[in-house]
C-alpha cells in the first residue's frame, strides 16, 4: 500500500512513511485508500491481541514480510501482563445516571498509559530497521506527558538508538517527568523546554521538516504525526467492537468516549468508521484546553493560550492530527487542506460554517468537573479514574440521554497512580504502583532549554557528536 501526504506533495510505502515520520512537504502521511474490514470480522473475533494487530496492520504494511510483522506485534505486546488481552473491557454499574458504562483499560502496559500500545509496536519497527539497515535510528518526539516515557520504554532494548524527548518544563505531572528523566540511560535525552507542549511539538515538526538535518542525524518521529502510531491504535478500538458485537461489529451502533488533546487517539477510532464499521460514533472529551471540543460544537477552530490543568496530557491547543481529519473530510483534496492550513496560519483560525458532525460530538470539563467526576464515579461504582479518564467518564455521563440505548465505551488512558494528587483531592485515596514507586529514589537527569529550534538542534548535535553514528 502507498501512503500519501495530506498536502499532496509526497508519497511512500509503509516502511518509508514510518521511518520518515513527516512527509517532505510538511504534511502527514495517510493511507492512499482505506480497506473494507467487514469481510474479515467473523474470522477476527476470537484472535489474540497480537494476531489481531498483525492481521489488521498487514492490510497497510504490505512491504514487510508477514512473519516479520507478526514477530514485531508479538514482541510488542509480550510486555503487557496479559499479552492476549492487554486492553481489558470492564463494565461499571451504579445507581441512577446512564449506567452501565464500559471502560476500555489501556493503561496496563509498561508505562501505565495508552501510548504503550502504539509505541511498543513502533519500537519494534525501528529495531527491525536498525537490524536490516545496519545504521542508527534516532528518535525525536514531543510529549505532553505519556508519549515520551512510552517511546523511551519501547526503544530501550533497541541497539544503536538515541531518544530525544521534548516536554514542557513544569507542565507535566512529576511522575510523568520521572518516567522520562530517570531511566539512567545515556541514550535517553530529556529536553525540558521553557514553554507549552505546542511549542515543543512545533520544534519537532520544524526539525523533522529539515530533510538534510534529519538525514544527517538519522532522526525520525515518534509523535502521533507518525502514521504507524495511528494505525496501531486502531486495533484496540477494533478489539472492543468485536468483543461487544462480534461479527456484527460493522453494523452495530457503538459510541466511544475519548479523552484527547492532540486528536490522534480519537482519529484512530474514527478511521475505523471509514473502513466499514460505519455505525461507530465518537464523543471527544477535553479539559479546559477545549479547542477540539469547541470545533466540533461550533465549526470554528480557534486555538488559544494553553492553560495548565489537572489533566496535563491534554494541555494542547494545536492538535497535529487534525490535519489528517481535514484530509478525509475534504475527500482527499490536498489543495483544500493546504488552503485551510494557510488560513489558520494567517488568521489564527478557520471555520466550517457549522458544526462538522461526521459522527463526532464533544464536551469539555474544568478541573472542578474533573474532580467531581472522579468522586462521583468512585462513589457510585468503586472505580478510581485518573483525571484524563475522568474527562471521558464525565462526557459519557453528560451525553444526551437519547444515545443511552447505544453502548458506550470510555477509553481509560492512564493509571490513576500517575496522578495521585487528583485521586487524593477527590476521594481521599492516594493510589500507588510499584513501577512508579521505584522511580522515587532515582535522580532526574534533564536539560532545560529555551523553546527554540536552535537550542534543540544544538542539543541533538552535541549528543550525537554531529553524526548519526555517535
Structure classification: alpha/beta
C-alpha-based Rg, rounded: 21 Å
Overall average pLDDT: 91
Shape by Cα distribution: globular
Alpha carbon gap, first and last residue: 34 Å
The percentage helix is: 40-55%
CATH class descriptor name of the domain at 89-112 and 228-432: Alpha Beta
Low-confidence parts, pLDDT < 50 over ≥5 residues?
Answer: none
Structure description:
With 470 residues, the protein is of the alpha/beta class. It has a domain at 89-112 and 228-432: 3-Layer(aba) Sandwich (Rossmann fold), CATH 3.40.50. Helix content is 42%, strand content 15%. The chain is built from 19 helices and 16 strands. Strand 10, helix 11 (264-272) and strand 11 (280-286) form a beta-alpha-beta unit. Helix 5 packs parallel to helix 6 (147-155). The longest helix has 19 residues, at 115-133. The two termini are 34 Å apart.
List its traits.
470 residues; alpha/beta; Rossmann fold; 5-stranded parallel β-sheet; 19 helices; globular
Summarize the structure.
By secondary structure, this protein is α/β, with parallel strands linked by helices.
Amino acid at each position: 500500500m502507498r501512503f500519501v501526504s495530506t498536502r499532496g506533495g509526497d508519497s511512500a510505502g509503509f516502511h518509508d512513511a514510518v521511518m520518515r515520520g513527516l512527509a517532505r512537504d510538511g504534511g502527514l502521511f495517510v493511507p492512499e485508500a482505506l480497506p473494507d474490514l467487514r469481510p474479515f470480522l467473523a474470522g477476527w473475533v476470537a484472535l489474540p491481541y497480537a494476531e489481531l494487530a498483525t492481521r489488521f496492520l498487514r492490510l497497510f504494511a504490505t512491504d514487510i514480510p508477514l512473519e516479520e510483522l507478526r514477530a514485531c506485534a508479538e514482541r510488542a505486546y509480550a510486555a503487557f501482563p496479559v499479552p492476549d488481552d492487554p486492553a481489558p473491557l470492564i463494565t461499571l454499574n451504579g445507581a441512577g445516571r446512564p449506567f452501565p458504562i464500559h471502560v476500555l483499560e489501556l493503561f496496563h502496559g509498561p508505562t501505565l498509559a495508552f501510548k504503550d500500545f502504539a509505541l511498543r509496536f513502533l519500537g519494534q519497527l525501528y529495531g527491525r530497521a536498525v537490524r536490516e539497515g545496519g545504521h542508527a535510528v534516532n528518535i525525536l518526539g514531543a510529549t505532553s506527558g505519556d508519549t515520551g516515557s512510552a517511546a523511551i520504554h519501547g526503544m530501550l532494548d533497541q541497539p544503536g538508538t538515541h531518544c530525544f524527548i521534548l516536554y514542557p518544563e513544569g507542565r507535566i505531572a512529576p511522575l510523568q517527568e520521572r518516567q522520562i528523566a530517570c531511566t539512567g540511560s545515556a541514550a535517553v535525552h530529556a529536553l525540558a523546554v521553557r514553554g507549552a507542549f505546542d511549542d515543543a511539538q512545533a520544534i519537532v515538526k520544524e526539525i523533522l521538516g529539515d530533510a538534510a538535518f534529519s538525514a544527517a542525524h538519522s532522526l525520525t518521529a515518534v509523535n502521533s504525526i507518525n502514521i504507524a502510531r495511528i494505525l496501531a491504535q486502531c486495533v484496540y478500538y477494533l478489539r472492543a467492537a468485536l468483543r461487544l458485537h462480534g461479527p456484527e461489529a460493522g453494523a452495530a451502533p457503538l459510541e466511544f468516549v475519548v479523552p484527547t488533546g492532540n486528536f490522534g487517539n480519537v482519529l484512530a477510532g474514527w478511521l475505523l468508521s471509514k473502513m466499514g464499521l460505519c455505525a461507530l460514533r465518537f464523543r471527544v472529551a477535553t479539559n479546559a484546553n477545549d479547542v477540539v471540543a469547541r470545533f466540533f460544537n461550533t465549526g470554528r477552530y480557534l486555538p488559544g493560550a494553553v492553560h495548565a490543568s489537572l489533566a496535563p496530557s491534554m494541555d494542547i491547543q494545536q492538535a497535529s492530527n487534525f490535519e489528517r481529519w481535514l484530509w478525509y473530510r475534504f475527500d482527499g483534496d490536498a489543495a483544500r487542506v493546504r488552503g485551510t492550513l494557510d488560513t489558520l496560519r494567517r488568521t489564527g483560525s478557520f471555520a466550517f460554517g457549522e458544526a462538522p458532525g461526521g459522527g463526532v460530538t464533544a464536551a469539555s470539563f474544568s478541573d472542578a468537573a474533573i474532580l467531581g467526576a472522579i468522586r462521583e464515579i468512585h462513589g457510585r461504582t468503586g472505580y478510581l479514574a485518573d483525571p484524563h479518564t475522568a474527562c471521558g467518564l464525565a462526557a459519557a455521563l453528560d451525553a444526551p440521554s437519547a444515545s443511552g440505548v447505544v453502548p458506550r465505551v470510555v477509553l481509560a488512558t492512564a493509571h490513576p497512580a500517575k496522578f495521585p494528587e487528583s485521586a487524593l483531592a477527590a476521594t481521599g485515596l492516594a493510589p500507588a504502583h510499584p513501577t512508579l514507586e521505584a522511580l522515587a529514589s532515582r535522580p532526574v537527569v534533564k536539560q532545560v532549554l529555551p523553546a527554540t529550534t536552535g537550542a534543540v538542534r544544538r542539543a541533538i548535535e552535541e549528543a550525537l557528536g554531529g553524526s548519526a553514528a555517535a
